[in-house]
Amino acid sequence: MITLKRLREDSEAIIAGLERRGLKVKDAIQEILAIDSTRRDLQTQLGEIQQKLNQTSKEFGALMAQGKKEAAESLRQTVQDWKEKSKEIEKKAELQASALQQKLVLLPNVPHTSVPTGKNAEDNLVVRTEGGKPKVQGKGRPHWEIAAQIGLIDFELGVKVTGAGFPVYKGYGARLQRALINFFLDENTKAGYLEIEPPIMVNAASAYATGQLPDKDGQMYYAPVDDFYLVPTAEVPVTNLFRDSVVEERELPVRMTAYTPCFRREAGSYGKDVRGLNRLHQFDKVELVCLERPDRSYDRLEEMVQHVEGLLQKLELPYRVLKLCTGDMSFTSALTYDLEVYSIGQDKWLEVSSVSNFEDFQANRLSLRYKRADDKKNELLHTLNGSSLALPRVVAALLEDHQSEAGIMIPKALQPYMGCELIPWK
Q1: Distance between CA 82 and CA 375 in Å, rounded?
Q2: Quick check: pTM over 0.90?
Q3: Within 10 Å of residue 284's Cβ, how many Cβ atoms?
Q4: Which tens digit of pLDDT belongs to each residue from 9-37?
Q5: Which of 206, 313, 329, 358 qualifies as a cystine partner to 362, CB 3.0-4.6 A?
Q6: Which residues is 409 bridged to in the sheet?
Q7: Which residues neighbour 285 within 8 Å (Cβ) at sequence distance 6 or greater?
């Protein structure tokens, strides 16, 4: 959530930044500032009334102590009047604060100045590409054909048990899932990330704090009896571990990694882009979360991107790094890099990771600050997160790009986790 201080001091730049997202927000921001001004005036009035109330109450007490009951009684009604006036102003201030909050949460984050302006994925900027297109025997087959032949994944059985988008992994397929999860977690912990095993259901306050609510309410699975949401990503529970917290500066950066199953309704998904593992309602993902000082957060962002690139290099997958344009970035992001792997069986690039800096947008919702070493006022932290990695499309690329006459070749770095060098054809 954009801070009120920033809105008051730099509203024109915020309007210009959000207009780069294709949003017309000038009237909305002027309305927010007007509500804020009214709220602050009411708070000033409330402070003045409270001061008068305290003074009159002291005078009343002093008169009673002196035995001057008649004089004291004459002030009793004045005290009561001030109390009623205080309640009235306080109620008005609360209504203004509520209205202000409802308006603020609808504003997305302001894009970093380096984010390219654009409308959709076609306008994203390719930063670099690593590795050439893989060479396979004959025409590369898509992963759903490979998985069916070897018996790795049963999509129809998943439909029977639950519905579309809930695949069943079998044999080598299940082992490959487990191997990738353990490989990613081990690599992340070696890089200094603390492993966390968080809940996979969160309350509304947690979903609100990281920006899933109200923006993505319709895309989240919801358990109404308990008022819980199934996590769309480990970012939500892990970041919320620090909600309403003050972190000592010496503890920064805070680096965490977590594996969770993830659940997304993905309303409106259809066609070839959802075939096989391309888009699922339930999938496994290992996540990175970082908390950092504002002046160092973009260094951490680049560090996280390089770490994810290292994982893809060890999996021997060609990939590219994109900087998302204003029209393709998430509601909460200030700057996002996507990492995509090349799928030879589908002849296209598949997104496997998004690494984002949210600056203080989430931290403001989380009430997450750090205590400066110079004992100055506590400041909002910057939060970052990134997929490290999302499994479905990684699995798809591994099956498609590493197919050979003998079967699916396992990358050297993954062999200790798989216990084999090859998944043979049936």
Answers
A1: 39
A2: yes
A3: 21
A4: 999 999 999 999 999 999 999 999 999 99
A5: 358
A6: 422
A7: 233, 234, 259, 260, 261, 262, 387, 389, 390, 391
